[in-house]
Write a structure and sequence with these properties.
10 helices, MetI-like fold, mainly alpha
């Protein structure tokens, strides 16, 4: 009972924080006190005050407004990237795990080739080919997590395919498509949902890292990673320029992590997604 309560608390806490962040991100144009690009040349690196609760950055821009706008970009890129990766990974893993043999070999070897490069190196390579920007960063992050999610789906499909009710459905003459859609896919998706929620936290960090390097979201669009890059040279003189975007990343990542851990306890007690 205590484990169930803690699981429910994790899921509710993660969902509540993510919902709040989502509302803030969507409503940024209405709740931000200033234009994120408006300059106050007389208040450059001004400390937090009633007029500017998060202070001003190196160009005299309101940090609070920029954090609100940056949050929507980071959430959009990270969630979109994981969603795209999931949509591609589910059918690939399903086919590989269900049919096996040459289908499994062909799909698995292609996915293994995508896992050769480290995540950041693969992202930088794609961005170097296609150019920087939030859309390209989304595609790069999706390609990084595609093989991970596909392998989880494959493993889960192998487990489900070996169960008695799948064999019974086959014995009754059900087609492969019917077995996949009605029996295998719905029961194999749990670990993928868990892994996707966890990867959303890493995707947000990766997007921030790419923006920090100047390879993700491009100015004048504000981004959390870009804000960290802007404030790294004035960390001693104006620490608030770094602290508040950093806190936004920490809160968002913690929310995704809580949700993922709670979902793991519910959908993946055997640890297939690990």
């Amino acid at each position: 009972m205590s484990r169930l309560r803690s699981t429910n608390a994790m899921i509710l806490a993660g969902l509540a924080v993510l919902a709040l962040l989502g509302v803030i991100a969507v409503a940024a144009p209405w709740i931000a006190p200033y234009d994120p690009e408006a300059l106050d040349v007389m208040g450059v690196m001004g400390p937090p005050s009633l007029a500017h609760p998060f202070g001003l950055d190196v160009l005299g821009r309101d940090v609070l407004s920029r954090v609100l706008y940056s949050l929507r970009v980071s959430l959009l890129v990270s969630i979109s990237a994981v969603a795209v990766a999931t949509l591609l990974a589910v059918p690939l893993g399903l086919l590989a795990g269900y049919f096996g043999r040459w289908v499994d070999t062909a799909i698995s070897r292609a996915l293994d080739m995508m896992l050769v490069l480290p995540a950041m190196l693969m992202a930088i390579t794609l961005i170097a080919i296609l150019g920087p920007g939030s859309a390209v960063a989304t595609l790069a992050i999706a390609m990084i997590y595609l093989p991970i999610l596909a392998r989880v789906m494959r493993t889960s499909t192998l487990v489900v395919t070996g169960l008695d009710y799948v064999a019974g459905s086959r014995a009754r003459g059900a087609s492969h498509l019917r077995v996949l859609v009605s029996h295998v896919a719905p029961n194999a998706l749990g670990p993928v949902v868990v892994q996707a929620s966890v990867l959303s936290a890493f995707a947000l960090q990766l997007e921030a890292g790419l923006s920090f390097l100047g390879l993700g979201t491009q100015p004048p669009t504000p981004s959390l990673g870009g804000m960290l890059a802007d404030g790294r040279d004035v960390l001693i003189q104006a620490p608030w320029v770094e602290i508040f975007p950093g806190l936004a990343i920490v809160i968002a990542v913690l929310a995704f992590t809580l949700l993922g851990e709670g979902l793991r306890r519910v959908f993946d007690p055997r640890g297939v997604a690990e």
